[in-house]
Write a structure and sequence with these properties.
Layout (H helix, E strand, L loop, with lengths): L2 H99 L4 H37 L4
Length: about 150
């Protein structure tokens, strides 16, 4: 082999090696840039999640007093309704018992009492439904839903 051919082959080999080296550098830089972009994306997601957690904690702190108030209001209404219902049932029971003792009013009294008890039952059931709803709303405010 001649020296000239050998020199050309060496130059060609050097060019190929240089091309491969440049290719490796380009691939490495592209990979590094992609990894950097992915790392920045993960960093931003972590910051967003931290901000969401912080905001959720603040909202929960703001909602807790409302939830407590809903619970207290439901308890107060329940207590008042229970006392009222007991008193109402006692007075109605005595009144209907007196009317039932009179033979001339006995038939009507039975019908009226049945209708009275039905209406009163619906009324107190509606109060119970309202307090149950208030309690659920209070629990929903704090995420303690059943």
């Amino acid at each position: 082999m001649s020296a000239d051919l050998l020199a050309r082959l060496l130059v060609l080999a050097a060019l190929v090696a240089a091309g491969l080296a440049i290719g490796l550098v380009v691939i490495t830089v592209r990979g590094w840039l992609a990894a950097s972009a992915a790392a920045e994306d993960v960093r931003r997601q972590l910051l967003r999640r931290a901000a969401w957690r912080e905001e959720a904690t603040r909202l929960l702190a703001l909602r807790s007093p409302l939830a407590d108030s809903a619970q207290r209001a439901a308890d107060a209404v329940d207590l008042g309704a229970t006392v009222t219902r007991l008193g109402h049932e006692t007075v109605a029971g005595l009144s209907f018992a007196l009317l039932d003792a009179i033979p001339a009013t006995r038939g009507r009294t039975t019908r009226f009492r049945r209708r009275h008890d039905e209406i009163a039952g619906r009324f107190y059931s509606a109060i119970n439904d309202a307090t149950t709803t208030a309690r659920r709303a209070g629990r929903a405010l704090t995420g303690d839903e059943e």
